Amino acid sequence: MLLTEKYSPKSIDEMVGNDEAREKIKKWMLNWLGGKKRRPLLVYGPSGVGKTSAAYALMREFDLELIEMNASELRNRERMEAVVKSAMLAGTLSGKIKIILIDDVDVFAGKKDSGGPAALAALLKETNCPVLLTATDAWDKKLATIRSECELVEMKRVNKIAIRKLIERIIKSEGMNIEEADINRIIENANGDVRSALNDLQTGKTSLRDREKDIFMKMKTLFKASTWVEARSVAYGDVDFDILKFWIDENIPNEYEDINEIAAAYNWLSRSDVFEGRIAKSSWVLLKYSIDLATTGVALSKRRMYNKFTRYSFPTYLREMSRAAQSRSIAKSVGTKIGRRTYANAKEALEMLPIISLQMKNNLESIIAYYELNEDEVDFIVSKESK
Q: What gap in Å lies between CA 283 and CA 210, rounded to an integer?
């Protein structure tokens, strides 16, 4: 399971950072629960600071039914009115109080000639249930009509101390072996983005590297399996199910050659995701069905046994996450070293890369020695200039 999901806050108080904003969000919800109607809440701020997590924390803390929608569902005025209005008016199957989450409303509002923002603003004015909207920039002019119908709460980048406490708690809980230097790197690279910090922590996790050989064996067992028991066994033991699914997804076309087998395997994997998506809204008992579909469903999709040797591939998604983390780390290091010599902060120093690169062309060794750059940092500067 991804760390961002496993350690998602169970209540508003469990969230890290933005104490004042979280208090406002909680009081807003308590007013609704106490029978006092409040205007919709527009929570805004940079990525990864907890805007969407706040809605889920409210759901868990107060046992609400959360109805979530995003920009892809609100394509135009007609679709928006159909989806949002029905959500606001309909009762819940569980009988619980509902909260509506409209994620990334600025993306939806930015669609040209959709007519949606004005229509959404009209619906927000009439809502009789709590509605929480999220956006990056609440003061974008595209959001003017929506903003006028909402209470605003700003969430800022989370401070390093709060992120460190969270990371250290997770490291202890997971039994990870992470060097202090790596922890510092993760915190610096995150730049106040909690989600980014947890993703970097997971992709750099020592135990993942240690278990690389084991995951290749699990892939072989899964794709060569001929029985339910054999296929299901790959999910036993110390295995991260989300990571396992990334491996399965990447390697289906590497193992299977028949297009119908490939389609069937991806269909089972997709259905596994559907069950997993229902877990937060229903019960963790559904996880066993998700695991069965992702393992036995995929394994038994083949019509014949493939006795060939298959070179299983490391998941592209995880590789790209790791590369992104490494790139941010190198950029930070380059900025710090150049800034030390030019009396600038790291961000300002990175803006000098075109000049540094030009200097390298004329006197490479001297520039490397002056800024104390290593090979990776030199490659980073050169690659940036060539783009």
A: 32
Q: What is the pTM of this model?
A: 0.54
Amino acid found at 8: S
Question: How would residue 341 be classed by pLDDT, with cut points 50, 70 and 90?
Answer: confident
Number of neighbours of residue 9 by Cβ within 10 angstroms: 19
Sheet containing strand 65-69, edge to edge, reads: 65-69, 98-102, 131-135, 41-44, 151-154
Selection from 143, 48, 49 nearest residue 102 by Cα: 143
Residue 18: CB atoms within 10 A of its CB come to: 24
**Dihedral sign, Cα of residue 272, residue 274, residue 280, residue 281:** negative
With a CB cutoff of 8 Å and minimum separation 6, the contacts of 330 are 376, 377, 380
DSSP calls for 59-70 = HHHHTPEEEEE-
HSE of 272, CA atoms in CB hemisphere, 13 A: 23
**Tokens coding 321:** 């996450």
- Other beta carbons within 10 angstroms of residue 126's beta carbon come to 10
Side chain identity, residue 204: G
Q: H/E element holding 101?
A: strand 98-102
Is residue 151 within a helix (H) or strand (E), and if so which, with residue range? strand 151-154
What band does 75 get if pLDDT is binned at 50, 70 and 90? low
**Cβ pair 89, 125 in contact under 8 A:** no
Nearest 10 degrees: Cα torsion 110, 111, 115, 120: -50
Q: How many CA atoms lie less than 13 Å away from 26 in the CB half-sphere?
A: 15
Report the C-alpha gap between 382 and 216 in whole angstroms.
35
pLDDT of residue 184: 87
pLDDT tens digits for range 129-145: 899 999 988 888 888 89
Q: Give the residue among 201, 194, 130, 109 at the shortest CA–CA distance from 160.
A: 194
Helix/strand/coil for 108? helix
Dist. CA 199–CA 289, nearest whole Å: 26
- State the Cα–Cα distance between residues 184 and 296, nearest whole angstrom: 41
Query: Could you tell me which residues come within 8 angstroms of residue 65 by beta carbon, excluding any fewer than 6 positions away?
Result: 59, 92, 93, 94, 96, 97, 98, 99, 281
